Amino acid sequence: MVHKKIEEIKLFLKKNFLVVALFVLSTALFVYQHYTNLSWDFSAYVLNAKYLFYHGAYFESLRTPVAPVLLAVFLIFGVIGEHLYIILVSALFMYANIKLSDAVFKRWALEEKIGKEFCRVVLYTFSLSFFTLIYATAAGTELLSLAFFELFLAMMLTGRVSGWYLGLAFLSMYSFILYLPLLLVNRKIKKIGYNILGFAVVTAPWLIFNYAHFGNPFASIIDAYANNILFRQYLMQAFDYKQILTVMGWFLPFAAIGAVLAIFSLFAAKKEWFSRNKPVIFFSVLAFLVLWDYNNIPLKQIRYLFNLTLPVAFFCSFGVIALCSRVKMLISRKNLVIFILIALFILNLFSAYAYINGAGNYDDKFYSAGSDIKKLGIENCEILSPQWVLITYFTENVYALGGNNIKSSLDNNKIVLIFKNEVTMDDEFTLGQLDIYKRLYETKDYFFLIGEKFAIENCSKKYVFDGPYVTNHCKLIAEKFEGLGLDSLAFKSCSLVSKPGA
Which CATH code for domain 364-458? Predict the structure, then answer.
């Protein structure tokens, strides 16, 4: 049995050598990026993993649970475990991409002149754009959630039960709640029921955890909504449509060709019109939903367009594969087509590498601050900072500065850590206004403020931070439905499944 499996793996590696090569190169870049630049979000997921499984002292309720659970498996190896997590996510994405290719391009994959291996290389290459390489694993969950979503789509498009994969995508990134109606896409009522059941089974443990800790099963979801949307309305930005071009990058001509061929396919009179055009219809709708959702969020950080890489990759692949199946000159030169695609991937890879190097070692100053906290003997004191997550990742005793009431904090024997060139949108002070306060220690990048009567032995002590982001979650839910006149029903429904006052 083992020998048979080994032979199957060897055969897979032989037939899919290029896909595996793309995986190795892209994964190496992801690992290098994490080694040189630790992001805020990734730090938070690591902290949540430590809290949930290793008695950590900091927990953010608004974070999704799948990344922390997977990270916890590898954190026994220390920092190396974070890189093992990235390798796992990249491998999962490669697997999902293969499954999606086999499902979406099935009619071409079965053709001897095209072949499924060719389709896999094409889709995977277009899935690893410059934009993908930059944002895939930097924040921790973009590529992970998309991998689960691709597995869901692969099974859904072939009529199989796949609700649990959408559940995992949702628990990796809450924005995938937008695609819940896809659970109903199946001709058989029984399979629809299984899809809903699969989604419910996967999400239930997290809802139970939220109920036990915060009194409301939807607390984490509501906290994320409050942080990213509700409390950011005053920052509403216009949609810069040039960002779509940034997502496409060098693949713009291929996407345009694919879109044109897709339109011809939709209007061509042929038998089994819907089944043949189902992928085109679906990915067109998917692209619209991604853009619609992005248009409605206040802060339009370009990484929030990450899911657009999927329909872009599809239409690029559709154009190349459709042309190769129709133009004999292209299919006879299939190796040349692959060479061009690999050349584009190498271009994207080196461009991404240059971009990452250009960003510098962003986390150096935070690592240094964490080291200084230990050298100064204040690792057990409560420290407040606008960049708290990036330092508490190293020390677990730094918390949000909050309302920027610096004088009150110092008077209560708390320490305030300020970085000189790291202004945030929530800062209500200037560096000049802080000159009146006593400094415990200062470097070229940051300084520690203390009160006049501060003493390390009497400092405000660190504590376990694990409270919800907002209180009265049901009230916030009700306000969301106020415009529809369903606020009362929403509040009562939420209260029914929550503890009083939650």
Answer: 3.40.190
